[in-house]
Amino acid sequence: MRRTAEEAAQTRRALLEAALEVFAERGYAAATLSGIAARAGLTRGAVYHHFTDKAELYLATIAENWGAAAAPVWAHLEDTDAGPQERIRRFLVAFFTAFEKNFALRTTFAMSMQGSELPELQVGLEDKRRVMDAWAEQLAALLRAAGVDRSGEVVPPESGAIAIIAAVNGVAATWLACPDLFSPAHQAEALAQAVLHGILPRKE
């Protein structure tokens, strides 16, 4: 029984890895379950053993690959050894660097953006919206701890958090559309400073 469970887990992982590649190459509409199964070296029946349909496989591919790829990046926001400003700065640098270098991170980001336009994926993407809400709250708390709401600046912590999220998504989407325009990894430090300028309190 243990061997069977291990084999099932390996099969599921192989399908998710193949799905990531196929969805990246062909997009949701053009990708087929047969093509994904073939890429994984499995049968279409193996796909249906683990996933009800293409929509479920698409959402699982986003959730599981994003979770593994993003965890080291988001860990910077939880690093209590650094101050709140530094935690946000490190997070931004890590995200911009990983976005260019980590295939799973940038692909699942692109998939989630594409999925938001597809009616059959709306229910499954509710998890993404909850994550975004939690991310905004976390950033606002860090900005508040950094003294943004006591600094006399015009940007409240909640607005600053939304501005950071919008900037992160904007940089990512811009690079996906125009990869020759700039290098997020090489310009990570400068991009982080540009995002935070005008949000964090100015040092006298």
TrEMBL record:
Pfam families registered for this protein in UniProt: TetR_N (PF00440)
Organism lineage string: Bacteria, Bacillati, Actinomycetota, Actinomycetes, Pseudonocardiales
UniProt xrefs under PANTHER family: HTH-TYPE TRANSCRIPTIONAL REGULATOR BETI (PTHR30055:SF234), HTH-TYPE TRANSCRIPTIONAL REGULATOR RUTR (PTHR30055)
Protein name as catalogued: HTH tetR-type domain-containing protein
Entry keywords, A to Z: DNA-binding, Transcription, Transcription regulation
Cross-referenced InterPro entries: DNA-bd_HTH_TetR-type_CS, Homeodomain-like_sf, HTH-type_TetR-like_transc_reg, HTH_TetR, Tet_transcr_reg_TetR-rel_C_sf
Known DNA-binding region: 32-51
Domain named HTH tetR-type: residues: 9-69
A Gene Ontology molecular function term of the record: transcription cis-regulatory region binding
Tree of life domain: Bacteria
